[in-house]
Amino acid sequence: MPKLPDSSKTFNCREMLQKILDGDATPEQQQQFKVHMEECMPCYKGYELEMAIKALLQKKCNGHGAPPDLIEKIKNKISHITPH
Ligand SMILES: [Zn+2]
Fold it and tell me: Is 1 a domain residue?
């Protein structure tokens, strides 16, 4: 069950999440993030949401790229539930 992040750790959540989503992370980093995600709610939610967007866009656009206004729409929706 994911909890709030442990502030004593120097793990850069945003940076790591972005790396994972861009596919820039090494297998070690992916593993590290998986473990981290279990105890960090922002990462867990962020990852879950990005994956949901990706799946949705792929489904809607058949991999031809999503129209920017659609992406904006989804991101607006998400900004209501994502903690800042
Ligand atoms: Zn995190």
Answer: no
- What residues make up the domain containing 38? 13-79
pTM of the model as a whole? 0.57
Distance CA 34, CA 62 (A): 28
What total number of domains does the chain contain?
1
11/39: higher pLDDT? 39
pLDDT level of residue 8 (50, 70, 90 thresholds): very low
Distance 13 CA to ligand 1 centre (A): 4
Q: How many CA atoms lie within 13 A of 2 on its CB side?
A: 17
Say if 17 falls within a structural domain. yes
Cα 64 to ligand 1 centre (Å): 31
